[in-house]
Amino acid sequence: MTAEATPSPxxxxxxxxxxxxxxxxxxxxxxxxxxxxxxxxxVAGKLGxxxxxxxxxxxxxxxxxxxxxxxxVKFMTGGRPVSAQQIAAYRREFGLDLPMWRQFTQYCGKAxxxxxxxSYQFHVPVTDKITEALPNTLLLTGTAFVLYTALGIxxxxxxxxxxxxxxxxxxxxxALTLYSIPSFWLGLLLIIVLSVGAGPIPGxxxxxxxxxxxxxxLAYAVDVVHHLVLPVVTxxxxxxxxxxxxxxxxxxxxMGGDYxxxxxxxxLRDDLVRRRHAVPNALLxxxxxxxxxxxxxxxxxxxxxxxxxxxxxxxxxxxALSVPDLPLVQGLFFVFAxxxxxxxxxxxxxxxxxxxxxxx
Length: 360
Fold this sequence. Notes:
- This protein has 360 residues and is mostly helical.
- It has 14 helices and no strands.
- Helix 6 packs across helix 8 (217-254) and helix 13 packs antiparallel against helix 14 (326-354).
- It is flat.
- The protein starts with 22 loop residues before the first helix and ends in a 6-residue tail after the last helix.
C-alpha cells in the first residue's frame, strides 16, 4: 500500500501506543480535570484567607480592649479599700502582673486550644458563659433572621417586577425609612407604646427579659414567645429593608436579559418567568447578604438585646464592657467575628455552585 493510501489519524484523535493512550488523550484528560483543579485552588485560597482573618481577629481582640479605660481589679474588689498586697494577689491570680507580651502569648496559646480564659466578673470559664447565653441569642436573632430574609426577598422581587408602580414606591420608601432608624430607638419606642401603654393603647407585652418565671411546659413556651414579640419585631423592621433593596436591585439588573424575552416568547406565564428564570439568576448578591446576616445571628444585636434585657450574647457583651471583663469581652468579640468570617467563607464556596463562572 502506498503512502498516499495509508489512512492518517484525524487532528486531535487519540492514537494508542504500546503503553496506552497517546498524548492527545492525555491532553483531553488534563482539559477535563482543569475545572476541578481550578475549584480546588479557589477553595484553598478562600480557606487560607479565612484562617488569616481569624488570626488577625485573635490579635486585634487582645490589644483593642486593653485601650478601654477602667481597672478590672477595682471592680473585683467592689470598691472596698484593700491593701497593696491584696491588689497584687488579684493581679497575679489573673495574670495581669505579667508583661504585655507574656499575656499575649499565653492568650493566643490558650485560644488555639479552645480556652478563652476565665471571666473576672463571673469567675467561670468564658466558654461556659458563651455556651449558656448562645441558645437565647439564636432563638431571638434566628427567628428574626428567617422572618426578615423571607419578607425582604418576597417584597424585593415584587417591587422589582413591578418597578415604578405605587407598590414599589411604597415598599422602597418604607424600607429605606425603617432601615435608617436606630434599632435601640425603635425598641424603646415599642416599649413605650406597646409595653407601658400610650393613651388608649394598653400595655400588651413585657418590657424586657425572656420569661416571667414560675411557668412550665406549654405555658412556659407561650410566655417566652410573648417576651419574644417586641425584640423580633424591632429586628425585622430594621433589617428587612436591606434584603429588599439588594434583591430589588439585583433583579432589576437581570430584567433586561434576552433569556427573559425568550422565555416569554415560549409562552411562559409572567410569574413562571420571574420564579424560574429571573430570580435564580439574581440571587448571588442576596446570597452574600443572607450569609453575612446569618453570621450576625451568633453575635446577636447588642443594642436590641440590651434594650429588651434579653439574656443573650449581645447583652452579655455589653455587661462585660462595663467592667471591663477582658477575657469575656475578648472571647465574645472573637466568637462574633469568627461567625461572620465562617459564614462569608461558606458563601464564597457556594458561589461556584450558583454561578459556574466564579472560581474558574
